[in-house]
Amino acid sequence: MIPFEKGQDEFANDIREYAGINFNTCLHCKSCTNGCPFLEGMDYAPNAVIRLVQLGQEEAALNSSTIWVCVGCNTCSSCCPMAIDIPAVMDGLRKKALEKKIKVPEPDILNFHTQVLNTIKKYGRTHKLEIMMRYKLKKMDFLSDMGLGLKMLKKRKLDLTPSKIQDKSAIEKLFRKKKQFPKK
Ligand code: SF4
Ligand code: SF4
Q: 4Fe-4S ferredoxin-type domain: which residues (predicted)?
């Protein structure tokens, strides 16, 4: 058995409680990794991230690009013989990285997530045009993809005005009910 150093077990426990799953049953069979469509963009394979968390390797796990590249498509968990919810682990790691103000290795991905969530918060739905405009504004990149954007507008794939849901209270409740790490 590999002994934990100070704080390592706390990190693993936090992620386990947040994700609500026991990743210690992982067999390291790599089925998740073999099925992941985004593996090429990752620094650690999905099963390696699980291993880092099991071993309490907080710094490596929280600085990993994998936790941001993962799109939560669930391909991995549907292949997993132990039914481990890997996207929930990635979600817990992203939250922990943000709480600890760790420099995000994929800032564009975080920017995109933020803009998507902002339109959902505002309208109860996504508004693609606003997401892309705010995303580009934050990046100070106004010209790339311009041609594609105009094509999409012409084909009416982008709505100029957002459509809003009538009762936003359920959405507001969801945003208020953010999942938290266990209080110490
Ligand atoms: S598929 Fe499941 S059991 Fe196999 S390595 Fe991935 S998480 Fe572990
Ligand atoms: S949920 Fe994430 S880790 Fe799993 S297959 Fe999809 S991108 Fe890969």
A: 17-47, 58-89
Q: Is 77 in the pocket of ligand 1 (CB under 6 A)?
A: no
Print the domain residue range for 137: 107-176
DSSP the chain: -PPPPTTHHHHHHHHHHHHTS-GGG-----HHHHH-TTGGG-SS-HHHHHHHHHTT-HHHHHT-SHHHH-----HHHHH-TT---HHHHHHHHHHHHHHTTPPPS-HHHHHHHHHHHHHHHHHSS--HHHHHHHHHHHHT--STTHHHHHHHHHTT-S-SS----S--HHHHHHHHT---PPP-
Atom of ligand 1 nearest to the CA of 27: 3
Domain assignment present for residue 168? The answer is yes
Residues 136-153: tens digit of each pLDDT: 999 999 888 889 989 998
Are 88 and 117 members of one domain? no
- Whether residues 82 and 157 share a domain: the answer is no
Model pTM score: 0.86
Q: Is the CB of residue 47 below 6 angstroms from any atom belonging to ligand 1? A: yes
> What would the mean pLDDT of 126-140 be, rounded to a whole number?
94
